[in-house]
Amino acid sequence: MTTIGEIGEDALIALFVPRLPETDAEILGPGDDAAVLSVDGHLVVSSDVLVEGRHFRREWSTGADVGWRAAMQNLADIDAMGAVPTALQITLCAPSSLDVDWVLDFADGLREACEPHGVGVVGGDLSGADQIVVSVTVLGETHGTEVVTRADAHPGMVVAVSAPLGAGAAGLAVLTAGVDAAPEAVQLFKRPRPVVGAGLEAALRGAAAMMDISDGLLRDAGRIARASEVGIAIDSAAVPVHPAASVAAQALGVDVLPFALTGGEDHALLAVFPSAGSMPSGWEVVGRVTEEFDGVRLDGAVPESLGWDHFSR
Amino acid sequence: MTTIGEIGEDALIALFVPRLPETDAEILGPGDDAAVLSVDGHLVVSSDVLVEGRHFRREWSTGADVGWRAAMQNLADIDAMGAVPTALQITLCAPSSLDVDWVLDFADGLREACEPHGVGVVGGDLSGADQIVVSVTVLGETHGTEVVTRADAHPGMVVAVSAPLGAGAAGLAVLTAGVDAAPEAVQLFKRPRPVVGAGLEAALRGAAAMMDISDGLLRDAGRIARASEVGIAIDSAAVPVHPAASVAAQALGVDVLPFALTGGEDHALLAVFPSAGSMPSGWEVVGRVTEEFDGVRLDGAVPESLGWDHFSR
């Protein structure tokens, strides 16, 4: 094993950069003070961070898994605006004792996630730190369509999700319990598989409000409710549960529903449509928008738990 | 004192976001899955990271100092391309025990640095972590001018810097030594004051290659040499030393020159011009571009030390 402290920053960059995905939008790529991109239409930009020990553990996820997740959750944010992702900026902080191979594996995961979508890594920064911290900024374009925000949900509209929920959260619970079970859920925690492009399709079909579910259905539905100054009523019986989550819940002897309601690991989309008839295929109605500006209700009541808070642990 | 763990993520965001600077380029600001910006010309993008215990210490720098530095060093990267900065994305990782006031102070520092330049913070992410890690991605525009890269230095051209060097590194040395001296150098370490716009001016005056000095004059000159496949000969007697660095060196009883040659804290610009006559006022010639592709030479010899490596400590 060779550590990144042993080879140093310049040598690490020389090994790392050639493994990164490229984009056609790139005019000047990594290696200068800044990268240069062509942008067609409006620029859409978002950032997400992954912290070792909080969002991933090295004993559970490979470098490639972390690279994949870092890319995917950011592509989902652009897709959730109804826009098209083009490029990533990556900052990687890591202890000097980290294996060089981990970093190269991380680059491979970024490439695997990005290449099918024509998305490139155009720049970033490296630094030492006590734990691995990956920060990703994703850039995208609108191509003339309007972005879909969280703020335009109206009473009477339907609330829907783009895919069955809970697999990632259930996989995390399996790993946390140290149980050897539910490999599909575990794999979906390590490598979430949101359908990039589902958001653009929803936007073209008239989605009024949309976001990616990154902190759990209930918490994120509350965010649409707040931004739109409406209420959102979720019907728990209507929430599609991922079969892998059910397998995991059974192995753990717990109820599967909380994984689907409060898990944010899948990066499926949550959207509000004028009616169920206008949804693209594959989406499932999980509730409706209500008049009263009072947050999210689950089966008519205030939910006991909303799920994840980034500073609560 | 109230900690960020006590108030939680949503409450922290509600306090933090209103203190951030705004930009006229903003179409949709913080609070959605992504921000939306208008871009005129080509997009220029760069990222830098600041890690507690490596780039700053809380006992030396306030939250506002860290916010200021985080913004300034990123604005300098866009300026160093001869482009104009417009917006920042910020990710902030911090322990849950951090004082809320530190985070709000951090926002104030961002605003102080950005507002004079019309630069806004349009989005970002917050997460828990064991130490504070600030990652900034800066976005800028070219407005029709060509960017100035590191790759177009040619033999016979002059190498110049935009400002006297060494104050920041000397200030850091004073703080590290625990000496109560040289307050100007200490202040310039905490709040570097690169002249944003100096790079655009240099670009308009025909700078052939340019970068901001973030890892020290010698190391960064070596990067221009490598990118341009030339040599760069630096004349140590010609390097302008900041008066505050001299005061600090005297107080510490050390030679001032290493601060100017290997300190990267000032974020002054390093550029190559066709001739000394084409430089904007205030720039000083420190060397010349040579034919042989052999890196950087100091007074004719390979330098003993190049300065900072991000994983070497």
From TrEMBL, chains A, B:
Q: Which organism is this entry from?
A: Demequina capsici
Positions annotated to bind Mg(2+) 3: D33, D77, D212
Question: Which reaction is this enzyme known to catalyze?
Answer: thiamine phosphate + ATP = thiamine diphosphate + ADP
Q: Detail which positions bind Mg(2+) 4.
A: D33, S46, D77
Lineage, opening ranks: Bacteria, Bacillati, Actinomycetota, Actinomycetes, Micrococcales
Detail which positions bind Mg(2+) 2: D48, D77
The family this protein is said to belong to: Belongs to the thiamine-monophosphate kinase family.
Q: Name one Pfam family in it.
A: AIRS_C
Gene Ontology biological-process entries? thiamine biosynthetic process; thiamine diphosphate biosynthetic process
Q: Which residues form the PurM-like N-terminal domain?
A: 31-141
Q: What is its EC number?
A: 2.7.4.16
The GO molecular function terms of this record are:
ATP binding; magnesium ion binding; thiamine-phosphate kinase activity
**Which sites bind Mg(2+) 1?**
S47, D48, D125
Among PANTHER family, the record links this protein to: THIAMINE-MONOPHOSPHATE KINASE (PTHR30270)
Its annotated function is as follows: Catalyzes the ATP-dependent phosphorylation of thiamine-monophosphate (TMP) to form thiamine-pyrophosphate (TPP), the active form of vitamin B1.
What residues does substrate bind to? Answer: H55, E265, W308
| Keywords assigned by UniProt, alphabetized | ATP-binding, Kinase, Magnesium, Metal-binding, Nucleotide-binding, Thiamine biosynthesis, Transferase
Query: What is this protein identified as?
Result: Thiamine-monophosphate kinase
The PurM-like C-terminal domain covers which part of the protein?
Answer: 155-292
Something else known: Reaction mechanism of ThiL seems to utilize a direct, inline transfer of the gamma-phosphate of ATP to TMP rather than a phosphorylated enzyme intermediate.
Q: Where does Mg(2+) 5 bind?
A: D215
